[in-house]
Design a protein that fits this description.
Structural class: mainly beta
Number of strands: 21
Order of helices and strands: EEEEEEEEHEEEEEEEEEEHHHEEE
Number of helices: 4
Length: 355
């Protein structure tokens, strides 16, 4: 709700469906001149086809020193209504008024109301636009001027010309050049309406160009507010690869920095230690052996030669058998005799290695 520190007690806000719209501070929008200290500017987000109203309230903290004050409401530069707050009412209780549309007097009698509604601006042919150039600067603006007034007199109600009939729903590209405009105000269908009170006409205490307060609301779409840097831009969606990379970097140390890159080194066979060369030779020999499907470990076992499968194991753990290979026991050579060992499972193994 917009307020002025210099004039406490008076508040104005724009509502949609009974809820106050969020207000944003302007970045570079300022009022120059004698009314600068009396003016407050707020930006609000407009949603197409949404009905809105203007709520004005005054409490006892405002010290009224005149008969009454009026709130002249302008939408897109067009006069809408002027609610009146009398000092006699304010002394007794809090005063508020809600303006939700344009009042009309039917040609055959009766009062009607057309509610305010946000409408997106569409581009039209330059020959079709009917916008008054003097009002173009006020498109997308709701302004409330507060005046001190003298005691007046009642005037009869008259049929008010619908200045919103043409509206500003269509503008040419030339009209929008350099302006972040997105919406204007149109009126909804006519509905039956009961006026809140008679109309009065009274004089100004300070003059028609000396309001005591001015409340300005610039209504724009979300995109237009972002273009004017009123609200931050929405972050652009990241590609799927970037999202996956960011997720991977959350658990894997990043190596993007040149200082953390590791330069690969290369060594030759001559650079290996003797132990490494021996280990490499054994691995190469193992890879050259034929694959055996029957052996789960794929490692060739040392072959065993069975001499006599009928040999039965003896009670002793092992038995050594000596046999002379060349000439029996009378062989005078220094060669050692071959030895066969009977295993516990009934097979005899002969050492066939060369002397």
């Amino acid at each position: 709700m917009a307020v002025l520190d210099s004039i406490p007690g008076i508040k104005v806000c724009i509502r949609v469906a009974g809820e106050e719209l969020r207000e944003y501070e302007p970045k570079h929008d300022r009022v120059e001149g004698p009314l600068a200290e009396k003016t407050v500017i707020k930006y609000i987000e407009a949603v197409s086809d949404a009905e809105f109203d203007i709520k004005i309230s005054v409490d006892k903290s405002y010290k009224m020193n005149c008969h009454h004050i009026t709130f002249d409401i302008y939408i897109d530069g067009k006069a809408v209504r002027s609610p009146t707050c009398k000092a006699s009412r304010l002394h007794r209780h809090h005063w508020s008024r809600i303006t939700e549309g344009l009042e009309e007097l039917g040609s055959t009698g009766g009062n009607f109301l057309k509610k305010f509604r946000f409408a997106s601006i569409k581009l039209v042919d330059p020959t079709e636009t009917g916008v008054d150039p003097t009002l173009l600067s006020d498109v997308g603006t709701i302004k409330v001027e507060v005046f001190r007034k003298k005691k007046g007199h009642v005037i009869p109600r008259k049929a008010r010309q619908d200045s919103f009939e043409k509206g500003t729903a269509g503008l040419c590209e030339k009209d929008l050049k350099g302006k972040a405009l997105s919406h204007s105000t149109i009126l909804g269908p006519s509905i039956r309406y009961t006026p809140s009170g008679p109309r009065t006409r009274s004089g100004y205490v300070d003059g028609p160009d000396q309001p005591i307060a001015v409340f300005i609301f610039r209504y724009r779409s979300k995109d237009a507010l972002q273009q004017e840097l009123i609200i931050p831009r929405s972050p652009s969606p990241q590609p799927a690869r970037a999202v996956a990379r960011a997720s991977s970097n959350a658990t894997t140390p990043a190596i993007d920095s040149p200082a953390r890159l590791v330069t690969p080194t290369f060594i030759t066979y001559d650079d290996l230690t003797p132990e490494a060369k021996d280990r490499l030779a054994r691995q190469a020999f193992a890879l050259q052996q034929p694959y055996s499907a029957k052996s789960p470990s794929n490692v060739r076992k040392k072959p065993e030669v069975e001499v006599s499968p009928r040999v039965k194991p003896k009670a002793e753990s092992s038995q050594r058998v000596k046999r002379e290979m060349d000439g029996g026991a009378n062989n005078n050579s220094n060669r050692q005799s071959k030895r066969a060992r009977a295993s516990a499972y009934g097979s005899t193994v002969i050492d066939l290695t060369d002397d």
